[in-house]
# Entry
Amino acid sequence: MLELAHKTRKTMYSQKKEIVLFGIDKSLLKPFVPEIKIRMNKGKAFEVEKLTSIQDAYQLLKRIYGRNPIQEHFIVLLLSRTNKLTGYYRHTIGTTSATIADISMIVGLATKALAHGVIISHNHPSGAKVPSEPDKALTQDISQALKTVKITLLDHIIYTTDGYFSFADSGVLNGINTMNMISVNNLITEYPKINQDNLPDALKQDEFEFIRENIDLYAEDDDIKKYIDTFMAKLNQVEAKKHDKKPEAPERPDSTEKPLKPKKQVKKEHQPKPIKSKPDFEGEMVERIEPEIAFIRRYVNMDGKVKSKDQVLAFLRSLQKAITERIIRKTSNYAEEIRDIQANLVMLANKQGTQFTISIDDNKFDRLSKLAKSESVMPCVKFVKLFLSLQGKADVKDKAKKLLTDIENATMKPGEAMKHKIAEVKKSLRDYISGKKDVPEISESVLNGLQGLAGCECEAPKENKQQIKPGKIISSSDLAGVTFNLMGFTGKWLELIGDPSDRFMTMIYGGPGSGKSTLALEFAHYLAKDHGKRVLFVAHEEKVGQTIQEKLIRLKAFHKNLFIVDKLPGDLGGYDFLFIDSVNSHGLSPLDIEKLINKYPKLSIAYVCQTTKDGNFRGSKEWEHMADVVIHANIGVAISEKNRFGGHGEVKVW
# Structure
C-alpha cells in the first residue's frame, strides 16, 4: 500500500536542519519542517504480479476492500508499463453513500510512484453497479489530469460485493481515454477492429486464431489462461503506445517473461501442400460438444498452420489433463483418435526448435474432419454466452438490442428447459432496453443454470435472500416478508418435484429395472448442468463400471460438475448435492444420513431405496419421514407420492 508519510520529531529518524531561503525569518518556523515523502509499506502479501484483465483487478480489489465494507472507499492501483502492479493507495474513506477524491493528490502520488498506468476504484455499499453522473465527470477529470504527466487511466471500477461496473469494459471510457482495454470478455469482438499493420507478428491473425479456437477453455485450463492473458497484456501494451500523443521508442520485452515467438517464414523450396477444406461444423445440434470432439476439432484446425512450441505444449497439457481427470476415458468411442493426436503432439513437443508446421496425413484428416463436423453447438447456447457477457452491466443497450434481434430472428428448436432459459433472457433484455431495469439481469437460480450451460465458473450475483436458523423464533408477520432461496426448477422436474428451497431431501425407490437409478442419475446431471451445482453420485450398487458408463452415454449426462464414486468418501465438504444409490447396498441407516445432515448443514441429499417383494421400500419408515420428496419409479414412470414443494403427477423416465 502506498501512503503519504510525514516525518516529525516523534519518528525514529534524526532530523536535519532545513535551509530557509529568500530571507524568510527562521525564528517564525518551528524547530523542524515536515518532509513529505512516499513510503512503500509491505502490507498484505497478495501475490499479484500483473493485471491482465478487469477480472484480475476485481479479484485484487476484493481483498483490498475486505468483507462487506459499509463506507465508501477510494482506491488507486498503480501499474508499470507492462501492467505489473506497483502498489495500491487507499486515498479516502467516506460515509455510507459518498467519498471524496483529491485529483491533484492522486496525480502527484502516481507521478512520484513512477506509474505508467492507473486504475481507480470506489465502492458502492448499496450494491448498485450503475455509475452516477458525478462518477463519470470525476473519471474524465482524472483521465485528463493524468494525461498531462503521460500516465494512462486504464479503468475506473465501481466495486460491490456482488460484482462490479468497469468503465473500460463497458466502453464508457471512449472519448475520455480513446483506448478501450482488451479483456477476455471483449477480445473476440474487439480484436478484428484493430489495424493489423500496427501489430507485431506475435500478435497478428494467426496467433488470434489459436486464441479463438481455445477461448472456451479460458476458465478451465491454466495453460490456456496464461497464454491468453499474455496475449492480451501485450495487445493492450501495443494499443496504449498507439494512443500516446508522442510516439515512444519500442519497449524491450520484460526479461522475466517469455515473449510470444514471431512466426517464421516458410522456406520457398518447400512446396505447400494443397489446401484442405476445413470442417464447417454443421453436424448434430447439441447443448455442449463432447470433450473428445472438441479436442479433435482443435487439432483439425491446426493443420497447415505454424504453431509455437508453447502452443503445442498448452494443447498437449490440456488433453492430458482431460485424460487424467477421466473427462476422456479409455473406453471412449474416439479413444483411437485421441491416442493418435496425443502421440503426434508429444512427438512435436520433443522436436528441436521453437516453431512447427502442423501437418495431418490426408486419410487421417478426412476421418477427423468428419468427426469434427458431427456435432455443433445450438445457436441458443451461443446466445446464452453473449447474454452472460452483458449480465449486470450498464451502458450496453446497443449490444442488448443486437442480441435480442439476433435471438428473435434465429431459427431454433430448443428443448423445454432451454425454451425457459431463452424466454428469461429475452424478457431481461426487453426490460433493460425499455428502461424498466438499469442493467440486464435475471434471477440467481436461472443465472446458475445459464452459467452451467455455458461452462462458466463465475460467481452469480447474490440476491437479498434469507435463511431462518434452526431454533430461531420469528413472528408470523415477519415470516410473511421473508424471501427464501428457491432452486428455480423447470420442465419435468418442476412438475415432479416443484420448486424446492436450496436444501432438501429426496427419496427415490423402485424395484429392479424400474428406472430408479436412471432417474437419480438424470436428476443429478440436471442439477450440475442447469443449476451449476457440484454433485457427487455414489454408485455403490452398480459400481463405477460399464453399466454406469452406458447410462451416462445414453442420457448424455457428462458434466464437469458431476462426479462419480463407488463408495461414500470421508469428506463431502466440496459438494452441494449427494446422491446415494443405494442406501441398502451401502448398509446405511436413517441415523447415518442424519449424521451427514448435521455434519454438512448445507448439503442436499437424494437417496435410492430398494423394494421388497410386495413393492414397498426396504427398511424403516423413517426413510420416508425424513424426506421432503418421495418418488416411486415403476417400469419407466416416476410418480411423486409425497411432496412439500407443490410437485405432483408423473413423468416418464425413458
Remarks:
- Confidence is low (pLDDT under 50) at residues 1-26, 174-179, 244-275, 455-465.
